[in-house]
Design goal:
Elements: E1 3-7, H1 18-25, E2 28-31, H2 32-43, H3 47-55, H4 62-65, H5 67-83, E3 89-92, E4 106-112, H6 115-124, H7 129-151, E5 163-166, H8 172-183, H9 192-213, E6 219-223, E7 226-234, H10 238-249, E8 258-270, E9 282-285, H11 289-300, E10 306-309, H12 312-321, E11 326-329, H13 338-348, E12 353-358, H14 363-371, E13 376-379, H15 384-410
Parallel strand pairs: 1-3, 1-4, 2-3, 4-5, 7-8, 9-10, 9-11, 11-12, 12-13
Antiparallel strand pairs: 6-7
Helix pairs in contact: 2-5, 5-9, 6-7, 12-13
Length: 411
């Protein structure tokens, strides 16, 4: 059955037309909140984590953990069940972006207006100029962050939708009539081909799940059960990777022909499978930028996921917003001293394991750091293998502490 999906554009009449469309066309409304609640129930994931995956910033460690991709994959699986049901839906929210364009019996709609018109609309419903500007900017930041992550495109890019309607002083009634007129065209009919696209969505979702669990982030397209896997980076041994990816994809029942290719615009970086058994959330804190970059590159080459900042204030901000498992910390830095960073880190997040790595420390510094809860105290220059081994041990301790906390909460 045919359905409608509306991507939100705050402070336009589109905010109020969903109920009218649903009433006129006998559609069942399904929102982002519904998707989050259903996905949490299906997969046993907290709603806060899912909400952050949809509306929050991408973690600086995400390229090593692929956590956001995994959570979005769960969204897709839940959404597939709705698309495969006999209901006619009015999908309302960011979830519109998760519906493949090939599912042609879902009309994807964007009602949009210039910034000035949106601010004027917000003021007409009681907001001040300042409130309206702030609200619009905050919402657009969320929307752009979402579509940029999914498609590398802006939220209001017309190619993402079947129908784009500029408000241009249209009333809510006129907007509803325009959408209904398009909805009743033959291009939105439910056909065998569009239903096959729903089945292809499930295959794509299941293949993506298997690949992500094995540490692979790959472009996936499924058409009539035939699968194309696209690698976006340079590859040392494409044939070996092709065999590995094909073997994984064949684990999904119903898959047809599998093609693995490299993107014509492949990035200069080398493709790496993420190894989740190794540390993936390591924060490196040192004011010597070249040292941070060099050591981080050497750790990443050993599959240790590392992100660097260059002062104590930035480190604490990141601990508060995007908590690492392990911190590698210099002591003598401009601004906040490393010992104070260690102290505040342990207050903010006691489970973060801190490895002090310094070239100017004293015995008193070492004693103070260990008393504050440092996992290890190391001196520069450091052997990269010794540092890697220490980070791994610290990561294992941090993971054990998190597991213990989860168990105690369940109890």
């Amino acid at each position: 059955m045919s359905s409608i999906a509306i991507f939100p554009c705050r402070h336009t009449p589109a905010e109020n037309i969903a109920k009218e469309l649903a009433h006129r066309l006998t559609l069942k409304i399904y929102t982002d909140d519904n998707l989050i609640t259903d996905t949490a129930a299906e997969f046993g994931i907290s709603e806060d984590k899912l909400r952050n995956a949809m509306f929050g910033k991408t973690s600086v460690f995400n390229k090593f953990t692929l956590e956001r991709e995994k959570l979005i994959n769960m969204f897709r699986h839940t959404l597939y069940q709705k698309l495969n049901s006999t209901h006619q839906w009015l999908f309302d929210g960011f979830l519109t972006s998760l519906i493949p364009a090939s599912i042609s019996h879902v009309l994807k709609v964007l009602v949009v207006a210039p910034h000035a018109e949106r601010v004027s609309y917000a003021r007409s419903v009681g907001m001040s100029e300042k409130q309206a500007q702030k609200s619009r900017k905050e919402f657009d930041k969320l929307a752009y962050g979402w579509t940029d992550f999914l498609f590398n495109k802006e939220a209001y890019e017309s190619s993402l939708y079947d129908l784009v309607i500029p408000v241009a002083q249209k009333t809510e009634t006129e907007l509803v009539e325009t959408i209904i007129k398009c909805f009743h065209t033959t291009s939105v009919l439910h056909t065998n081909e569009s239903q096959q696209a729903v089945s292809d969505m499930l295959l794509m979702t299941e293949i993506e799940h298997i690949l992500l669990e094995k540490g692979h982030k790959i472009g996936i397209v499924v058409v009539n059960r035939d699968v194309t896997l696209t690698v976006e980076e340079d590859v040392f041994n494409l044939r070996k990777l092709e065999e590995e990816l094909s073997d994984l994809a064949r684990q999904v029942e119903g898959v047809g022909k599998i093609t693995v290719k490299q993107s014509p615009g492949a990035k200069n970086s080398i493709y790496r499978r993420q190894k989740f058994e190794l540390p993936s959330k390591v924060l490196f804190v040192d004011d010597e930028k070249e040292f941070v970059q060099t050591v981080s590159e050497r750790l990443i080459s050993r599959d240790v996921g590392t992100y660097g900042v260059y002062d104590g204030e930035a480190a604490l901000e990141l601990v508060n917003e995007d908590q690492p498992d392990v911190m590698v910390l210099d002591l003598k830095m401009p601004g906040l001293h490393g010992v104070e960073v260690l102290r505040q880190t342990k207050e903010l997040a006691p489970e973060v394991e801190v490895i002090v790595l310094t070239g100017h420390g004293t015995m008193d510094d070492m004693q103070q750091c260990m008393e504050l809860g440092a996992f290890a105290y190391m001196n520069k220059p450091v052997d990269i293998e010794e540092l890697s081994a220490t980070i791994k041990a610290a990561s294992e301790k941090a993971a054990a502490a998190v597991g213990k906390n989860l168990t105690s909460k369940k109890g």
